[in-house]
Amino acid sequence: MKLLTLIIVFMLPLSLVSKEQLNILTYDSFTSEWGPGPSIQKSFEEICDCQVNWTTADSSGALLSRVKLTDNKEGFDIILGIDDSLMSEAKDTNLFSPHALSSSDLAKLNIDWDNETFVPFDYGYFSFIYNSSKLDNPPKSFDELANRNDIRIIIMDPRTSTPGLGLAKWIYQLKGEQSKDFWKSLQDQIVITAKSWSDGYGLFLEGEGDAVLSYTTSPAYHAIAESDENYKAMLFQDGHAEQIEVLGMLESAPNKKLAQKFISFAISKGFQDHIPFGNWMYPVIDGLEGSSDFYKYAPMPISLDRVYASKKDKDLWIEYWSSSID
Amino acid sequence: MLLRKTKTYGSSIGHQVLTKTINQKLERGLIIKLPFYFYIVILLFLLTFLINFFYETKNYSFVFDNILKQSIKFTFFQAILSTIISIILGFILSICLYLSNFKRKIITTFLNFFFIAPVLFISYGVIFIHGSDGLLQNIFQFINLNFSYTFFGIIGIIYVTSYFNIALSANYFFRKLTNIPENYLKLMSANKISLYVALTRCLKPVVLNNLSILITMVLIFCISNFTIIYIFASSPLLTTIEMAIYQKISFEANISEAVIYGFLQTVIIILILIPTLKLRNNFQMITLKVSENYRIYQSNLLSSFFLIIFFLYFFSPCLVVIKGLYNFNIDLLFSKNTILSFLYSLIIAFSSLCIALMIAISSLFIARSLHENNSYLSNYVILSIFIISFVPSISLSAILFMINVHLNFILPNFLIVAFINSFLLTPLIFLFLFPKFMENNKYEKLRVLQFNISAVNRFTRIDFLKIKKELIIVSSSCFVLSMGDLTSITLFNSSSFKTVPYLISQLYSSYRYNDAFFILAIFVLFIISFLYMVNSLAYKNVKIR
């Protein structure tokens, strides 16, 4: 009997070790205690009988760089968190394999999607966030913002930040070849060009600017998590550029079957339930419980057409921005 | 007796040979020298890897890139300006402190803390005071003074970079001033020589002696101000080489260009500093003499005024602790994440310190041996220790990351982070321990030869006792510096491996700014308590005036 107990005691950890492993590379805030990662991990592990391992990089851009540099020798199955502006570049690396979701699976999404490699898991619209207790008449368009010398804005460097690049795209979508002139007209308002979104947003909360480049969903965080309804997004009549965050399976994934299962899970309720109140972005499926509160504080803005940027496009947007700086 | 004899006789010749070999090695101190040889092997390995990068890079047009030129110009402009400001103000502060009645132990403890305080803490502390919605601007508003200013851009960068380096310089000069021999002071007192005359004439050689080493250290610290640039560079034009490297690695996945950028920075620093990297005989002046109590100069109105300004400059950013504690969050404090982050920070700091101490002590030992034999190679030992600190830590991280990729990730991440940190701490330990290590070396050498003392015995019985106090102090500083580092951890973290600075950055990127300030405050309080305890230990049983 004692021997049997001993065998069971020794075998128990082995049975845990023998669980299938799913290695996901994502950005750091996703896996933090207060981000959606831990809840998503718990939900998925309940159905997969597997172990999810997260590895993080400090930004969305760094994720792709990491697998490119290592040729995925680290053995990741999934990359979660690159955005639509990196999709084309990511596909060109030939490091990713098709997601194999059917068109009926994709039809469940609340956004149009036909990409064969990447699957969206949340999205948002770039916007400028302001404190309505300090600024009572926010601009209604980009042109108005450029003419309002009383507003100091904080933006991010498009070379080191995804929202920064999003702003460059947004301006290009609205102004086309006139982008350089527009950047020049906006220059007086820009007080800080932060290196990352978190730094820029932190400085805004410290009072360094009247508005900060972020997402239309940011006010929902303040209203719901902090009970502060003063933070609002400037809603422009000329429309807002979109950002879609996606996940993709790596060609050299050690556990493709499990990775495929996770991709299907990413567009299910079990995953999406944690997006509005964990990642503070719009979920890609409708009908989630309690999400009406989220949409109340993060109303959908007018959307500009979706753009899938190539490396050349991005270089052009950055060039318009950098050549306008004195 | 017979049995004992038989046993002795029965021991094999091989055993005798082995014992003899071990004894010879002990005499030569091979065990002590090993860490330095290991370090040299790593250096050569890194060099080979670097050559490979050059070999693989086909197109060098990026070297003539305007962005790189701008980065180089700005890197050295801000670094040289900060160095000049730091050394001048550090010198003035040291005089004010020397004239003041504050206890030396307290002065050096605070100067140490200001030098090693986490960059994030001081940066956000400065914003808390000087930001657009900061304490100062609110006071101006309250008294209806229409004066507003922004602290972002070059002003903020110089202000915060100088903060740490003024403390370092002041500490250095203060130690020199406290070491002015008593007979010098008595002579000056008898001749009624003023402090100004004393410093500009009589004591000039004492003050200027080894200044080049201070300049080297300060310049290196001013160049590697990545976090400060990250926070305060309000414009894309204010970009340093380290920032360009970060961009190349994180966003362009271009490791070759990143490494070559790092190489360029290293070469430029070497060209600037190579004349200063010479081993000097007289290092005695940078140790702190705590028991000295002869004073002829007293503080005056001007020195008191400067002291108040410096007091405000150094202590005002620390007020951010209040903001952090105001957001007290007990759940966060005792969460698994926070506890693990503290634990990993402690492990990283401890491992880095152990590696750095082994390399530094080993190199000190070799440098002294060579110096005692009048060998010019001693200068190369120093150069080899310093050279790695010239390489931007983000480049070093990238190279080690790529080496680990080629080795199929054989090295655990925490070990790589520990190695990177230790390489950057080694020169600091080397420099700090050098004066004590070299003390009476000529006399000691004679005695060592006379009594046939082995190298290991010399180290454990003589050197260790000499450097014990300094060792405790520098170890505590390096421990704290390593705990607060964020550079290399950004490349090597995982969900199960994160440190306190990384936790703060995670909180920061998840809208949880108040919680980030809270953890920062707790982290700083931990550091202060730790330093206080270590200093108490170091100065235990020492009579201080």
Give the topology.
The complex is a heterodimer of chains A (326) and B (545).
Chain A lengths: L1 H16 L2 E8 H4 L5 H12 L1 E8 L2 H11 L7 E6 H9 L3 E2 L5 H5 L10 E14 L10 H6 L5 E4 L5 H14 L3 H8 L3 E5 L2 H9 L5 E5 L2 H8 L5 E3 L8 E9 L5 H11 L2 H4 L2 H5 L2 E2 L7 H7 L13 H12 L4
Parallel strand pairs in A: 1-2, 1-3, 6-7, 6-8
Antiparallel strand pairs in A: 3-10, 4-10, 5-8, 5-9, 5-10, 5-11
Helix pairs in contact in A: 8-16, 11-15
Chain B lengths: L1 H9 L2 H16 L1 H27 L9 H34 L4 H13 L2 H12 L4 H8 L11 H25 L3 H9 L4 H8 L1 H5 L2 H13 L2 H7 L8 H10 L4 H19 L27 H15 L4 H7 L3 H4 L2 H37 L4 H14 L2 H14 L6 H26 L2 H10 L4 H29 L5 H4 L7 H9 L4 H26 L7
Helix pairs in contact in B: 3-15, 3-19, 4-8, 4-12, 4-14, 4-16, 5-8, 8-12, 14-15, 14-21, 15-21, 17-27, 19-20, 19-22, 19-24, 19-26, 20-22, 21-22, 22-24, 24-27, 26-27
* Oligomeric description of these chains: heterodimer
> Order of SSEs of chain B, N→C?
HHHHHHHHHHHHHHHHHHHHHHHHHHH
Low-confidence stretches of chain A: none
Helical fraction of chain B: over 70%
Q: How is this structure best described in words?
A:
The complex is a heterodimer of chains A (326) and B (545). Helices cover 43% and strands 20% of the residues of chain A. With 326 residues, chain A is of the alpha/beta class. Chain A has two domains: 7-123 and 243-297, 3-Layer(aba) Sandwich (D-Maltodextrin-Binding Protein, domain 2), CATH 3.40.190.10; 124-242 and 301-322, 3-Layer(aba) Sandwich (D-Maltodextrin-Binding Protein, domain 2). In chain A, helix 8 crosses helix 16 (311-322) and helix 11 crosses helix 15 (291-297). Chain A starts with a helix and ends with a helix. With 545 residues, chain B is an all-alpha fold. Chain B has one domain (30-53, 62-538): MetI-like fold (Orthogonal Bundle). Residues 1-10 and 281-286 of chain B have low confidence and may be disordered. In chain B, helix 4 (66-99) packs across helix 12. Chains A and B meet through helix 2, strand 2, helix 4, strand 7 and helix 10 of A and helix 14, helix 21 and helix 26 of B.
